[in-house]
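Lecture 7 notes. Example A: sequence first, then its structure tokens.
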Amino acid sequence: MHELLVRDGKKIENSDNIPLSYSKVVRATQPSVVTILTLTNPEPEDLATAEKPPERSQFNLIAPEPERKVEARPGGGSGVVLTAEGHIITNNHVVEDAHVIKVRLPNSTKDLDATLVGRDPASDIALLKVDTAPLKPITIGDSSQMEPGDIVLALGSPFGFEQTVTLGIVSGTGRSLHGMQERESFEDFIQTDAPINPGNSGGALVDAQGRLIGINTATYGGGWMGANSLGFAVPSNLAIRVANDLLVHGRVIRGFLGSVLVPVDEKEALPITGRSDQLPGKVTDIVAGSPAESAGFASGDIITAVNGVPMPTSSKLKFVIAGMVPGTKAEFTVLRGKETLTLTPTLGQAPKPYDRRVLTPRQESESLALQPGLEIGLLSRTHRLRIQVPGNLEGVRVVRAEVDGKPMSSLSTDDVILSINGKTTSSPKIAKEIFDAIPSGRPIMLRLWRHEAEAFASIKKK
């Protein structure tokens, strides 16, 4: 009988050489991984709450209340020693709001004062410096050589358990967190199934030889659906380049095209990428006097490749442009209508550092009225954490939802509007533009995030 299925009976390659222990690698690497401790002073609104005058009873007597105290908030993460002189790399989000930063070396009970050399929110990398006896720098590997299936170890201090090591593999490369970060960011993460937990941030992801190939940065929990073993690390090649720029220039030097790039819509994407979830970048505006203007870019151009490398998403395109050295001449493949063009701009230098959006309490509370009784506001990081909105979802927060002074039955405060009639509402301004374009009297379908799950609601345009 003819066999339709043929078995491969060959022995697994290198199966005789698989190590049964990585203790030697861990012993060599652990001295280069430190614990970072931070203190963050209370925000003005916290102080205002603490100083709130006590309430009076109906007899005008001051009700006794426990003393309100607002203390500095402790935090922290992990870090990796880069130089014997005391330079330590970590995540920006570990130290960005801290007023006090200390470093605890392995097997030490003494906490050292650390100086912030510089930080780069767009790559989530920060560089610290401690003054102490010579430290042991980690060996740095080439993250571009890592492939799915390669063994990796994650080192750090999850939940304060110092010098913790977990084992896994590279699950993917070139990943984006799809909006999990609130700021403008440049993403090219290594994905791993090595367990990463709070406190691991800023720690080392090393290969099977103990060479640094990533800085542990984030995990994805999957929102209401739940997810396991989805960890992400900034590749070492990017992290070290950022650290060098911070050390030499005090900020990161990035390439600059001078165009505003947004993802194309799904209908435009399908003929280009063949997938509705891969949305290349479209030029919507051009900075006067920029390399984009000099090279002949026009609003509506869709950039499909750079130097012959396909750019399937706008986030990938932004990352590639930002990673180029100013003065580099690059070939951009552009789709303009039905015509394919090649434009060759010489990239400039980004005019200012990319930084996180700093919102005052007033800015966080500002709202836009969609119609009488219905107001929306920015979905800030604070609100996102409080309402438990997954990082891959974008939307606007419902600030007010009333009809004739009474609460609406279909919407409530702190609902998050993800889309209006199928169109994504990534900001209050965009949401209002979508809403205003709908004729009065028409029903409107809203996709929501509510009570840690997606939901739908229907309202009528007044």
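Example B, a different protein, same format:
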Amino acid sequence: MRKLLFAFTAVIFAITLAACEGGGSKDDSVEIVFWHAWGEVNQSFVRDMFDSFRAENPDLDVRLSQTGQGGWTDLRDTMIFAISSGNTPTMAVGYPDHFANYINGNALRPLNEFINHPEYGVELEDFIGGFMAENMQFGDLIYSMPLAKSTEMVVFNKTVFDHHGIYPLEMDRAVTWDDLDQWNETIVGSGPMQCEFLFNADSAANFYINSSRQFGAGYTNVEGEILVDNPETEAMLEFFQARFADKTLVLPIEWDQQYGSNNFIAGDVCMTQGSTAGTRYNIPTEETGKFGRFEIGIIPVIQNTFCPLDPLADPDTIDPRCSAMQQGPNIAIMADATDEEALAAWKFIRHMTNVENTRYFAQNTGYIPVRNTAFESAEYQAFLDTTDPDRIPFAMSARAAYNQVLFYRFDPAFIGEVTSSRARDEVGLAIEALFTGDGVEAVMDQLRNRLRLD
């Protein structure tokens, strides 16, 4: 990997007010400065977990200052600026491609010493395998831990589907493209119980990356090679070009939107695929739009082969083409933290990711528990079966995530002439170009040129 050059370009540094929680004065207590990209709702859950952390550790004199830095890209840019200026927080959340840059700049502290400590270490075996694998991709050193993980799910208009006698919730396998092709004939149209489009994919980049696994096309590898220039990719793009044409598939840019939730609620599209963390945005709450306050259902992501919805199945029996995006931020400690600050931060990370708190955070945010025992706990299983109308959509989202846990896949993070972050951006733009009318060959040329494959 090439050494990261932190460019001193203009970075808009939005200075936000950091809320300080916990006892002790600024002179005699250890301060954990925590940067993330969450708003006030999720910050309140972090405060709750910090309160219980202090209650369980009365001899630890520590306080928390947490700051939301805007969106995830804003957080990454602010972190790079902070690293280059030597003014980093104690700990921060981020995605693997963000952390790859920080690691290359020697800005993250390895966590092995904490993980393996006889007194305050953790048993990694209880963490979801795919989540830990994502955090163990940088060699022998572990620089981060899973914290707020999510995946994608499909929300569908159950009122419309029930009307046509189609019941996706009763299927013991994932919905496939063959199913969508069949349903298109019934659900897409201008009738009173039809939508103009069948299926929306919120993230064009996620859609491309996940589809590349489902269709056996290449994307990237751990060496940082870009593997998109092949006949399988061309066939995949031709497949989606046809589905764009017959309105089986649509992207939010059809409505000049970043996400499809508003148009799903309005009745323009009958299915929408997006993050489990965004469940609340797909719930119709008013008698507006074509279908009013319709009933929703939530299922795992669309697949391209037979994928059984059995989270307890033998993983070796699952077709490797069964794939669902594994996403959501991990948490790391910065190298500039003092030993005392780093230890306090680690103990808080350990607290936030214990069985009780990962379950608590998941049930209230739409994220996924990071521990197997939290998934399997009686409390979480009861949550999945809730009859509380206000909680049912979140429980359905969680169950969809749980049912596809054996499909979780992640892509390697790397830097170099073309970074993993750049590759992600470019494949998303390629799908959008295909949607707006560019031909398959033009899109392939765009990928070759922008990803420097010529």
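Note on Example B: The longest strand covers residues 150-157. The longest helix spans residues 40-56.
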